[in-house]
């Protein structure tokens, strides 16, 4: 429509000019219009003007895409997710009414179902949620890495369940709100709902381990696979002496005597757990037995040992992998567990150091074998939490 009107006006405009140029031959001739043809001013066509205007707008102005400040949403998650299970809770206004939530054993498709799942976990498990990082991984996608440690309070022994993994959170570009949340656990391969492997992973962690109600070295679980945990240990102090074997007891009475008052100040020091035995090389030619000292003590405040062969040393902490098992540990069992752990670490691309540690948490004379908690630990080099 706009084209036909435009052609008409151009044609009329040519006729009404006082001078017309026409190329007939190589030589041009100037012609004047006959006197009986009256010229009229070109009428202003408002409709024609708007047709041209809209045509230009349609062709020159691209469709504006929704803009989402993904950096701001990442910063929001750093502030909001630590409140996932506390009294403040997450900000409901940051989520669409329709939220697709999936983990290997749970499924919800609304914000109400999503919040119900959070409330249920809070009541039954008292979760400790730790956010490690959050970053943009797609145009409208943010991925987070986390650790969640839970205690199932309905069972008398209150088993500890540990899950680590990533969450992929989708953003609705029309509302700037989250509209999906999908969890992936590090400890299983099949993370699609409903995962039988995921259910068995939960059941496996409900078994009985007896951990004494004593102070232990402080650590944070960074990753939990099907066979081991990767932990970040804070520095701690030990009293140690020479041992004989990883599963042996030689030297225990000497280090226990130190905390029971056989020291320069005859000071009794609270008992902790576990008792460590450490092999410093692959051949396990040198072994020490260690008791961890309370965290409120320092090297300067501790009394000196009054027995030769006993020393106090600060362990700088670091990243260690731990494999948990029950029963009464023997040297053969410990060596087999160490071999299994080292093989898994190498397979997963990690760098285990030489040597290992055995952690024994229970008094063997007062604890049933099947509920004893033991761990083999190997320190790692250059670990990065991806």
Automatic annotation (TrEMBL):
Q: Which family does it belong to?
A: Belongs to the HEBP family.
User: What protein name does the entry list?
Assistant: Uncharacterized protein LOC107781462 isoform X1
Which organism does this record belong to? Nicotiana tabacum
